[in-house]
User: Which sequence fits this backbone?
């Protein structure tokens, strides 16, 4: 038993050492194409409700992550991440029966979505290093004089003996971004809040 545990530890340590050694060699900067996809089934919960959608990028840096043990290579997105999230949410809201409109429109129902984090890193774990991506979106919604706030998180990870390829990094990043967007579009409480009709006061 002890010999087995020792072997597993040594094997993991060697794997980690090889990963870090290879990762430090000939790594180049990556430009990732953001292609998040929403898999939420369509519904009519929105009932044609107009929603002023406003997506903002609240990250301190557009850098998604770094490759290599000393951060020798950067990972950045080709496109504007804010616009990508806006496009997917816009279509997703339409699929739920809402009518998204420009944030400049004067509407009683508004949905502000803040991109708080889209971060790639590598956890030095045994037996294998773990490349992972964290994605965080915050929602601030308004319906008349009522408000709704919620933080949504998603993480994707994979064990890798060798440093992931650019295509594998892209897949990991897009999975995390897709997952966190779907968490918004499947939040029944949020959707019902947005869909609730406005009440108008009746005169005497």
Assistant:
């Amino acid at each position: 038993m002890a010999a087995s545990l020792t072997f597993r530890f040594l094997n993991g340590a060697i794997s980690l050492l090889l990963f870090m050694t290879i990762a430090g060699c000939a790594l180049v900067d990556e430009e990732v194409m953001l292609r998040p996809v929403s898999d939420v089934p369509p519904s009519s919960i929105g009932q044609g409700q107009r929603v002023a959608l406003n997506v903002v990028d609240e990250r301190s840096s557009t850098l998604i992550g770094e490759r290599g043990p000393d951060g020798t290579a950067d990972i950045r997105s080709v496109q504007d991440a804010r616009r990508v999230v806006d496009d997917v949410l816009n279509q997703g809201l339409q699929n739920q029966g809402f009518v998204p409109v420009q944030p400049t429109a004067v509407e009683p129902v508004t949905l502000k979505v803040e991109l708080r984090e889209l971060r790639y890193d590598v956890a030095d774990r045994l037996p294998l290093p773990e490349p992972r991506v964290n994605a965080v979106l915050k929602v601030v919604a308004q319906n008349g004089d009522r408000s709704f706030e919620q933080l949504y998180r998603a993480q994707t990870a994979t064990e890798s003996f060798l440093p992931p390829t650019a295509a594998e990094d892209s897949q990991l990043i897009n999975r995390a971004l897709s997952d966190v967007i779907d968490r918004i579009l499947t939040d029944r409480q949020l959707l019902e809040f947005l869909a609730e009709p406005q009440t108008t006061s009746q005169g005497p």
Summary: The longest helix spans residues 2-23.
